Amino acid sequence: MIYPIISLIFFHAFRTAAVPALGYSHDHHHESPQSLPSKTWYQDPEHPVHALFRRDALGDGTTYAAVGSPSWSAPYPSSTPNPSALPVEWLNTLNAAVAAGKIPNIPQSSNLPNQNPVYPTGYDPNSPTVCSATEQCVTPGDIWDAPDGVFASSFDDGPTPSTPTLVNFLQSNNKTTTHFMIGVNILNNPTQFLTAFNAGHDIAVHTWTHPYMTTLSNMDLLGQFGWTMQIIHNSTGGRVPKFWRPPYGDSDMRVRAIAKEIFGLTTVIWNHDTEDWAQTAAGPIQAAMSGFLSSPKHPGLVILEHELTDITVNGFIQSYPLIQQNGWNFISLAQSVGNGSSYHNAQSSSSEVTPMGILLANQTTSTSTSSTQSSTSTAASSSSSSGQNLSGAKAQTSSARTLRDNFSPLYTTHSALVLAGVISLCV
Ligand SMILES: *[C@@H]1O[C@H](CO)[C@@H](O)[C@H](O)[C@H]1NC(C)=O
Ligand SMILES: *[C@@H]1O[C@H](CO)[C@@H](O)[C@H](O)[C@H]1NC(C)=O
Ligand SMILES: *[C@@H]1O[C@H](CO)[C@@H](O)[C@H](O)[C@H]1NC(C)=O
Ligand SMILES: *[C@@H]1O[C@H](CO)[C@@H](O)[C@H](O)[C@H]1NC(C)=O
Ligand SMILES: *[C@@H]1O[C@H](CO)[C@@H](O)[C@H](O)[C@H]1NC(C)=O
Ligand SMILES: [Zn+2]
């Protein structure tokens, strides 16, 4: 169990030189979350993400492999996704978006180890054309701030062996947080994944293997987003995540567009950084937090924190009383900036998943041609096929609950195997 911790520390040690502290000094325009257009929070039923990650359209037929079981893990890449082994639907959706002019044709960046990505001559990272988040260029629609007075809580890089400590602490305080999870870490730590999900915490996307995303081709981006969406979808009873955070904060107009147009994901950065991953004790983390927590209430706080180790988690736990004492309203980030819903098709990890995957959508659009629909043959399907009626959602409620109850005890032998994969990946 120590291997993943060590490897992840190595992994993050790379960040020292490469990541500018995205401190509070950045001079970003104030597009506060409250003022964003409503389309940011509401997916049109026609958005491709609903076709790519749909539950059975009638809400009762889909079952998923038990999280942690061999059949659950088998379909996923154990390290960097192979761009020539992607589901054809993802490729078709990308090609359609490119053809429709929705994906900016800007070049990939490149970087040396431990350095920020750079673009070819002629592509200014601060220009509207590129708008690199690494350079702290802010595009309307991305999240950097929380609503006034809100501590929008999130943790990156899980699940890890330290995840249960974090979850249990928050649970004892009747709180949840948003976990920006790494796909291979879900694959390697299914027990800890379930600890977070079953406690009602929000699950969001932090890519499959934590690369600098702007350095990747469109096809490689598809794999990084797609597999992470897929494993979350298939491990949460069919939920479709709404948010992603780029590793190292590295995103640009092309990466954002693929996240948004293909996967429906809104990009979330941060406005304060504890640099918790670089600390060797909880004290300095608490000191950094203390400074942020005594700042004015406008804008609200989006603090970069990690559930990497017991040190980073304890840094948060020791800071927690200060959040209350300074009068901040602690809310899971996805709940806060998602207008009360963490997923495209469910309000939270414990609420029902709606048919078609769209929260309160117009049900007349559920005229699916997918084969999953025709394979459905239970009474629930006839009740919701009348359309216009959310009774299908009711049927889905029990379905989702059953799925979650069905999560079986995990295969502990599994982890020993895949941990080796993490080591080779990270070092
Ligand atoms: C956001 O929440 C408010 C309050 O519940 C609601 O009135 C509004 O319609 C919601 N907006 C969207 C886009 O869901
Ligand atoms: C996700 O779950 C669906 C429904 O069970 C299944 O058809 C599909 O193969 C799963 N995908 C992966 C990658 O396991
Ligand atoms: C826990 O939090 C929820 C949501 O904020 C609230 O409705 C509920 O009353 C709280 N329960 C307790 C025991 O404090
Ligand atoms: C649902 O969509 C149909 C077709 O687009 C439209 O005619 C109808 O008014 C919509 N219903 C609601 C409740 O929005
Ligand atoms: C919608 O569902 C409710 C509850 O099942 C039912 O009473 C109502 O008649 C349904 N309405 C339509 C238009 O099907
Ligand atoms: Zn990360």
From TrEMBL:
PROSITE patterns listed in its UniProt record: NODB
Pfam annotation, one family: Polysacc_deac_1
Listed GO CC annotations: plasma membrane; side of membrane
Claim: Transport is one of the keywords in the record: no
Record flagged with keyword Signal: yes
Required cofactor names: Co(2+)
Domain NodB homology: 149-331
GO biological processes: cell wall organization; chitin catabolic process; fungal-type cell wall biogenesis; polysaccharide catabolic process
Compositionally biased region (Low complexity): 364-386
GO molecular function terms noted in the UniProt entry: chitin deacetylase activity
Protein name (database record): chitin deacetylase
